[in-house]
C-alpha cells in the first residue's frame, strides 16, 4: 500500500505477475476453460481499449460522458458535503480520467475544496493521470493511492470528512452476480452514512445494439480479445498460434450477460513453457474471457439494497442507454 504526495514521481517496478501464472493455470485446467478479463490491459490491450471507446458501435463511454456533462451540476451537488468538512473524491480504476475531469472541473469551478484520490494497482497508470491533471487542472489537489480498491477505502476511512467514491464506466459489469454482490458489500463496510458512491451501469437495451458493441465491424474488439493470447505467449512463453483462434461474443437478454470467448478453430496443443503446462483444445472449444453485464433499474435497486445502500440519485442519458447511480 503506497500513498504518494501530490508531486512525487514513481518509477514503475518490473511487473512480476505470479498471479497471472496462477490464474492462467487454474483457468485452463477447468472443464470449461476461462481466462480473466483483468489481464486484457497490458500496454497493447490498453491501447486497443482506447480504440474500442472511439468505435461507432461502442456506445457506453460516449454515452456516460454525455450524461455526466448533462448532469454534472446535480451529480456534484449530491457528492459534495453541505458543510465545510474535508472532502475526498476517490476514484476506483481511474483510466484516462476523461469522464472524471467533467466532475473535477465542475467542482473546481464552483469553489469546492477537495482532494482527488485516484486509486489503481498500476503505478504507471496513476503517474500518467497525475501528470495530465497537474497540467490541465493546476489548482487540483491530487493524492494517488497505489492499492487494491478495498484497501484504499479502508485506508481513507481513517481520515475525517466526506468520501465520495467513483466507480465509473460499467466496470461493475465485469463481475459475476455473486462477485458483484460481494464487491458492493465490501465497499460499503468502511463507508459511513456521510459518504457517497457513484457507480456507472450499462443498461439493457436493443440486444442487437449490445451485441454489436462487443463485435465491431473493424475487428478491434476481436484484436483486444486475441491480445490476451499474445500476452500469454510473451509473459508465459506460450505458443498460441493466433491464426487458429477467433473472437466470439453472445448476449443473453435473460441474464443481461455479454460473454466473450476465444474459439479454437481446430484441435490443437498449446504449451506454456513458463508454467510447465500443456493444454489440449478440441476443435471449436472455447475459452471464456469476459462478462459484461447489462442492468435494469430494478436490478440496480435490488443490488443497492442488498449491500446496505440507499439510492440517492439515478441519472441516465436521453436514450436510457446508461446510468450513473448515486448510493449512500
Ligand atoms: C472496461 C469493462 C467497461 O465490458 O464494456 C469493451 C471492456 N470489453 N469491449 C466493457 C470491454 C470489450 C469494457 N469495460
TrEMBL record:
<dbReference type="InterPro" id="IPR019257">
    <property type="entry name" value="MeTrfase_dom"/>
</dbReference>
<dbReference type="GO" id="GO:0032259">
    <property type="term" value="P:methylation"/>
</dbReference>
<keyword id="KW-0808">Transferase</keyword>
<dbReference type="InterPro" id="IPR017804">
    <property type="entry name" value="MeTrfase_EgtD-like"/>
</dbReference>
<dbReference type="InterPro" id="IPR035094">
    <property type="entry name" value="EgtD"/>
</dbReference>
<keyword id="KW-0489">Methyltransferase</keyword>
<dbReference type="Pfam" id="PF10017">
    <property type="entry name" value="Methyltransf_33"/>
</dbReference>
<feature type="domain" description="Histidine-specific methyltransferase SAM-dependent">
    <location>
        <begin position="21"/>
        <end position="327"/>
    </location>
</feature>
<feature type="region of interest" description="Disordered">
    <location>
        <begin position="1"/>
        <end position="20"/>
    </location>
</feature>
<protein>
    <submittedName>
        <fullName>L-histidine N(Alpha)-methyltransferase</fullName>
        <ecNumber>2.1.1.44</ecNumber>
    </submittedName>
</protein>
<dbReference type="GO" id="GO:0052706">
    <property type="term" value="F:L-histidine N(alpha)-methyltransferase activity"/>
</dbReference>
<dbReference type="InterPro" id="IPR029063">
    <property type="entry name" value="SAM-dependent_MTases_sf"/>
</dbReference>
<dbReference type="InterPro" id="IPR051128">
    <property type="entry name" value="EgtD_Methyltrsf_superfamily"/>
</dbReference>
